[in-house]
Amino acid sequence: MVKWRSVAADEALTNWWDDGGRLIAFSRGGKAFIAINDDPQKTMDVVLQTGLPAGVYCDVATGTLTEDGSQCTGGTVTGMLAN
Description:
The protein is mainly beta.
């Protein structure tokens, strides 16, 4: 998460979403996105605006990119362009 903060730097908070409870998500400009589920009884199964380009992203809470940057050692998230 230190790396996430380093990438997010001083970017503006954008694309805020919450469920009114313990699920939140937001972007830091067009550089970083985070989704947090702090409710063990809920699944976070939603479509969210990330502010990031379409692509496959590494879940840095569960892994890191390999040294050559070609693979993620943890989970991944696929981002698509909004219609």
